């Protein structure tokens, strides 16, 4: 009875969207920042961290440098598709949308290089309805717990050899079906790549970019989101001719949804 009353109060408040939960979907950059070793290492250099005699106040300022494709980041279509959009050319409307979370944690535990399949997309639609227009569809394989340990993230014993990396990702068939039959703004993963490293042609990246859609890689903390009903924000840096950028991705959802989410668990 008390439960029921609580649920009704919650739904009532929900209907007014009085309050939202905000979830950070990004990993922290530095001091254990990783990216594939073909990139120059992350560089954080203190320029000033002292009492400034001129202004008579404490001042801190730093220099940082890293690959565009570091930790939680966005890939622009130009990353692997000549003539397609650079990151500064993606309109903001294509950086906000409904978050669709594909929870495949159990499957990814059992299968090395688990790939999101068309069945995973159908399963989501059976529970929640058609994948909404403008959605960002993201795999939650439980990979974010492995950050920031490079050997665990890339699941390898030889970090210098990309071909030995074994991570969960998307099958080409699922990405192709999604892009052909639904209208999405982004395809994402909590692992470091939307393609398997063991493949040679990066088919998923190329298929995504062909449709001027962006890829999200290294998305964190997806367990804190409901599988549907959240809105994702992807505030990529407006980097001129950038092929991607590290991004503080986050999401919001009505607070009572989180309450109902917990009840269901
Ligand atoms: C990091 O950046 C600083 C400032 O540009 C530079 O002086 C330094 O050589 C860089 N360090 C490395 C390891 O590249
Ligand atoms: C690791 O990979 C690199 C690059 O392919 C190779 O040169 C090296 O021999 C490998 N190390 C081991 C221990 O297998």
Automatic annotation (TrEMBL):
- The protein depicted here goes by the name Arylformamidase
Q: Which family does it belong to?
A: Belongs to the Cyclase 1 superfamily.
- Residue span of the signal peptide, if any? 1-17
Quote the PANTHER family the UniProt record gives. CYCLASE-LIKE PROTEIN 2 (PTHR31118)
GO biological process terms on file: L-tryptophan catabolic process to kynurenine
For this protein, the record's InterPro entries field holds: KFase/CYL (IPR007325), KFase_sf (IPR037175)
Tell me which UniProt keywords the record has, alphabetically.
Signal
Which organism's genome codes for this protein?
Mytilus coruscus
GO terms for molecular function, please? Answer: arylformamidase activity
